[in-house]
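Hi Y.,

Following your request, here is the sequence exactly as I used it, all 242 residues.
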Amino acid sequence: MSSRRTTTIAGSLVAASFSAVLILPFSAAADDEGPQSSKGGKAVDEAPAGVELTTTLPEKISVDNKSRETAITATVKNEGTEESGEIRLLVVGFDGLTVKNVQGCSEIAESDLPEGSNSGFACAVDNLAAGDSKSYDVEATYDLGKTGKICLPVQTPSGDKTYWQQGPVPFGTTNPSPNAPATPLLLGTDNQPVAPGGDELAETGALGRDALPLGAAGAALIAAGAAGLWWSRFRRPVTRES
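Below is the corresponding structure, written out as tokens. Let me know if you'd prefer a different format.
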């Protein structure tokens, strides 16, 4: 074998190895939870001067297809220039998404849940300095045979004012994976459930419609929220310790 041919083969092997190194990190990153997003959020009542409260949820979660369990990180932020004072964050589930526990928070009594919700927790936040945030680990289940939504209102401790409300915003997929170990769901996407039979999609009622694009679904929920921004101004949920 000539030296030129040997050099060519060696160069090809080096190039192939280099390509493999570049590809591996991308396939590994695909399994990671995406960045946090305030998609589906809207300011409601005017906050104190210099206080700007928002929330975020992960762009992507993963639901175990056997246990239906999933984990969600809910974060409240003060993006203003002044301390927030005492506030509370509510974490409420709708339809197929049921909130089972929120670390350090109290369960909302069933009689005090907003209409249409199935579960919820109230988290007392003593104070957020300007630029600070606080995150909560949310344990939930998701029935992939249904749509599922979550809502994060930020209120005064008494609940008489809601400074910010994210949702009810959906998590979902337009490509169900009934035979996979887990199904990834995207924030702001209407879920197209798998029918009880296994591989066919449900085609009745609202579940049979084409899923909205990622941005349109969130925009539709914001519009719905503006028409009736929850029960917070009329009811003050009584909580019980979890």
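The chain has two helices and 14 strands.

Thanks again,
Q.
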